[in-house]
Amino acid sequence: MDCSQIEREETAEAYLGGRLSAADQADFERHVFECPCCLEKLRMLQAVQAELWEQGSPAVAHAPERRLFGVRHWALAPAAALILVLAGATLWWQLGEPGRRAATAQSPYAALASFDPPPFIPLSLRRGEDEAAAHFRMGMDQYVAGRFEAAIPDLRAAESIDPRACNVLFFLGISYLLEGQTDKGISRLEKVISLGDAAYAVEARFYLAKAYLEKGDASRARAEFEVVMDSASRLSSEAARLLAILNR
Amino acid sequence: MTDDLPDPRGPASRWADLARGVSAGDRGSEEEFVRIFYPNVMAMAASRMRDYEAARELAQEILMNVVQGLRRGLVREPGKLPAFVIGTARNLIKHRLQEMVLRPAAVPFDPNADPSASKDRSLSPQESDVEEEERRALAHQVLQRLKPMDRRILYLTLAEGLTPREIAVEVGLKPENVRNRKSRALKVLQSKMARLIRNSRPLHYNQER
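Output (structure tokens, whole complex):
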């Protein structure tokens, strides 16, 4: 692939539009890494694409059949059904208490410290699976089945291979908490927070606060709940509610 | 003019649909999400990382991070999914650059190496932010100056990934006209942005890069 071919075949536009085959995509990317001109053009197009996404389309001529990113609406029916099934499953998971953490009698805040296991939906983004991912998948199979003790060995194995993987640390921490190994749970959740992964940090704080309550440490729990409350995440209102109870 | 009718669904509801599908673990939605956002994120990573594989890895990490964020309910406005993706990409790239500054990779000494060739394309996190914002501001400025039909054609090309033939059906023009208008609009964009970048970029950018 060379510059003139890229120009002639409008490869950069096709690349950003997601219309290249996997092989052409890889060829184009390799070329871009060696060619400052094509990189510059790609960056310009990338900025324009981002801006167009934000602005939206200025107008529509005639809409014979609106499609969602190239998919006809009726084709999304199975996806909608899947969403409903998953929503139902999540509700069942939360109401059915397959592994609700038992409140212990040691902490004065035991009732507030109890929690339902956060749900997990597997990712299917990566086609290949390395050893750490395989252990994570096996551990999470146990986790989803409510067998938290059985989940721990595989999650530990994944952690030893990739000690900075926030998904592994998060669910390992939760599994420890659910098994009553609070100190080990705390150490994993603290590590998730220190790594700053936005996808897990807020939630890690929420469950860390629960763990502190389990240990009877209300002041540290309050500090974590306050951060969660300010995060405007789905856990904010629950954090505010618990904080109000703690402050009574 | 045929291009003055509003989009009946609007892009926000389409992004929200996609965000919901991804949140629910729908594989088709995930693949669509990757198809749409991977190239944009990869272009951002490519412009800052020295290494092809590292950029690919980072782009994938960014997308996985967004998926996790969607599933953990961190996206307050699913209709603004692209802004969330780009914001996440910016943060993670910045974080990675900071890590690289703190822990630079060891490079074996080569007495025959050309010193100018060793200059990679990594910017400092601050430069990276400035350049990103500058580029977006220029894109905004230049897009405003385009005719609505040309902007629409660019939107369908870049934001929805349609071919000239598909766009022709959407806008009621011949595919050849669509292709010509798109090429012309892109050339205008390219030349205006290049000129604006040259005029607005601080001196050290031109000296260093």
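Chain B touches chain A through 90 residues (CB under 8 Å).
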